[in-house]
Here is the input.
Amino acid sequence: MTTQAIRKTRNPEQTRSDLLDAAYTEILESGFQAASLERILANTSVSKGALYHHFGTKRELGLAVIKEVIAPQLAARWFAPFTEHDDPLASLQRILEEKIRTADESVIRYGCPLNNLIQEMSPLDEEFRRGLQQILELWVEVMATALADGQQAQKVRADVAPKEVALFIVAAIEGCVGLGKNAQSVEAYQRCLRQLQLYVQSLAA
Amino acid sequence: MTTQAIRKTRNPEQTRSDLLDAAYTEILESGFQAASLERILANTSVSKGALYHHFGTKRELGLAVIKEVIAPQLAARWFAPFTEHDDPLASLQRILEEKIRTADESVIRYGCPLNNLIQEMSPLDEEFRRGLQQILELWVEVMATALADGQQAQKVRADVAPKEVALFIVAAIEGCVGLGKNAQSVEAYQRCLRQLQLYVQSLAA
DNA sequence: TTGACAAGATACCGCTTGGTCGGTATCTTT
DNA sequence: AAAGATACCGACCAAGCGGTATCTTGTCAA
Here is the structure.
């Protein structure tokens, strides 16, 4: 009875990836709970049947976005640069400098996707929380290791506790993004990160 | 036709205040968008008619929660202590110490109501954003003034920029709460605040 | 005592939501 | 080429949502 077939050729991986991308955007704009499947579908021209073929529930889709979109994105933007040099403070300063330089409307408008989901979902869904926590722990660990290495190389003060300081720096970063987001001010975000730079500088041996 | 009248005696102010309290809790637990009016009503035994007599829309209720519940609460817990002494760093250390000492499950579970609403609502509703921003600006201003006073009293390093540092400290606080919340760990929250204490200490003249 | 209005009650509405289901088209395997 | 599995389609559904309309009742000034 039903006439269908808009998608002539099949491409399940592409479909799945399209859904993840659209879901990521929708979640970034509206949060997870308020994210509308209909809107996601409208932005992908994927049918509801296809969606529910790839993901069992909205929740599964959300979890997949965390693992397959947000985690890699943050890894590329924040973790990777640490492995490049042996002076962690210089690396961190460079990362922060880059963030300050490239700060624009889009970052300030929707903030950090990780932080957004933490505030919204971590008290409501244990599996969401674990997914987000995994990213967070990796981030802290990468930074803590870098700081410890820096201590060995005599470039970081001996009295800093790598794990604690790494935790604090991550917290400060998320805080800066959050404040910038509410002020809707790229400049406030930059001023906040500048103070973080000064703090990082104070860790030097 | 309708049999009614559960509330024998009237008390409009009490009703309003009950609604604000219940809405505050519901928003804290579910976020604003996912907050259910029906659930708020169920927790107050107030009727829908009464709710819509006091508040025109759900949105108005949310804005009232920000102005009449969250703002005073934060003022009492974070701003007020500053006015008590002339050494801002000591005041801040004392506040942080207090937060570390009294940190418990409930703080860690739902996080900071201000930060929650910022992440969720500030990109979606300009009036929400302004309401939240007002609280934020007051907070930063109180702290910046205290720092500037501290500089006059030679208790704060002369090279710190009061406004910028105040902004950073607020960001760091929100960040610490956020991380503790996702880790669901009072201890992580405390460790994070301890590093903030060390930072604050480093501002001393 | 009464009239007017504020406060509160409840049934109802349109709409969106996440999710289901029977069916079809394409791809892979044999 | 037949068969079976995978990918996809879209109409449909119950439930919950915020909001409205119409009503009753408590309060208090005149």
About this structure: Chain A touches chain B through 45 residues (CB under 8 Å). Residues 1-2, 4-5, 8-10, 36-38, 48-49, 52, 57-58 of chain A lie near DNA strand C (CB under 10 Å from a C1'). The CA atoms of residues 100 and 175 of chain A lie 15 Å apart. Confidence is low (pLDDT under 50) at residues 1-5 of chain A.
